[in-house]
Amino acid sequence: MPKSNLRKNPRLATRSMAFVLAGGRGSRLHELTNSRVKPAVYFGGKGRIIDFTLSNALNSGIRKMALATQYKAHSLIRHVQRGWNFFRAERNEFLDILPASQRVSEGMWYRGTVDAVAQNIDIIDSYDIDHIVILAGDHIYKMDYELMLRQHVEAGADVTVGCLTVDRPEASAFGCIAVDGADRITSFLEKPKDPPGLPDDPDKTLVSMGIYVFDWAFLRERLLEDISNETSSHDFGHDMIPDIVRHGKAQAHRFEESCVRPREGAPAYWRDVGTVDAFWQANIDLTDFVPELDLWDKDWPIWTYSEQHPPAKFIHDEEDRRGSAVSSMISGGCIISGSEIRESLLSTMVHTNSYSSLHRVVALPDVYVARHARLENCVINSGVIIPEGLVVGEDPDEDKKWFRVSPQGVTLITQRMLDRRDAER
Questions:
Q1: Would you say 208 is a known binding-site residue?
Q2: Residue 228 scores a pLDDT above 60
Q3: Residues whose CB is less than 8 angstroms from the CB of residue 309 and which lie 6 or more positions away in sequence, other chains included
Q4: EC number(s) on record (predicted)?
């Protein structure tokens, strides 16, 4: 059915819920997730990674959501309580936070993605829904889940799996999906050496996004079967989805059919910001003249918790001491005092002082940069105080002595690293 016709029909989203899995640490982000789970990491100047998944659900018309948390969840829970507290129970809409809380037995936390849903069957039953959308809370993208729900119902599928189309050589790093000519899934392969090509394009492969649509009655039965299976690892990608592919009907949904694009012909934007390099690049990309990710779109806004900050301020206008920012994003509460900022993203309440320069820097909230600092190709963790005269990004060998330098040469700076540097020098 054409997308235009799908949008005219009654929305399935009103009888659906979003179950967001947000319990994984995201260890490849290293120190950025020492005190917070990956979905709670700051992104884009004023938001968090989790805001994209929740905003997609809200903008798709889903008003019933649950957020399963586990690893160091306080920052995430606090953000959701402050920024996503506008749901009204009297209108049958809500966002429930479901921390791992030994609901099944003492000592049993969430054992996997399937188990995180299974341990909350009674809560989901109370929602009175027809469909459930299982979502990961740690990716950056815009997607209309209503269109995926439509395809699921029309295909009569047991499960519909959201898929990215990638070049075949790159697909080996993902869970790969083979399909027939009608996009019915014929096999689900975890990181194969020889990924399957598409029937209509042998040079491309479909890979799983970790997004699944089920009828709740069907999934409920499968959850009960899984939790009683001692050989299961209780994971959707490893256990349940491959089993449905073998014994039921699994349908692939191509992301390009439901992604929300900033303009006609724009590429389908999806990013896993799970490494320091990927996180830095996705933030820096927002400073492009026409970024692929449109944060200015009023038709598909990214909702978040908006703290009350004054506008950004730029002061001093002297030679070598001019507060300026070029090709950059500067958030509220920032003070650019006699500093030169280029191709950088500064989150809320960043303060840079005279004669300092930042080039291709991602600064998380509440960073303070002292005078004469020169920083290039950096990610600065929140709350860091950059000392006077610090130079980073010009001598990789020196940087590696004190900071974490990524494979692509991006330097991650935390306060603990700076404190160790000061103590040992």
A1: yes
A2: yes
A3: 331, 332, 333, 348, 349
A4: 2.7.7.27
pLDDT greater than 70 at residue 239:
yes
Tell me the whole-structure pTM to 2 decimals: 0.93
CATH top-level class of 313-424: mainly beta
Q: Is 190 annotated as a binding residue?
A: yes
The 10 Å Cβ neighbour count of residue 231 is: 5
Tell whether the model's pLDDT for residue 159 goes beyond 90: yes
**What is the C-alpha to C-alpha distance for residues 230 and 209, in angstroms, rounded to an integer?**
27
**Alpha helices, DSSP H, located in 235-376:** 241-247, 276-285
Is there a contact between 176 and 197 (Cβ–Cβ < 8 Å)? no
Residue 191 marked ligand-binding: yes
* 274 annotated to a ligand binding site: no
pLDDT band, residue 5 (cuts 50/70/90):
very low
CATH number of 12-287: 3.90.550.10
Alpha-carbon distance of 351 to 163, in angstroms, equals 41
Residue 269, annotated as binding a ligand: no
| CA 1 – CA 311 distance, rounded (Å) | 46
Q: Which comes out higher in pLDDT, residue 407 or 425?
A: 407
Domain positions in the chain: 12-287, 313-424
In the chain the first and final C-alpha atoms are separated, in Å, by: 67
Alpha-carbon distance of 373 to 354, in angstroms, equals 9
Integer angstrom CA distances of residue 128 from 1, 136, 181, 309, 367: 28, 22, 35, 40, 46
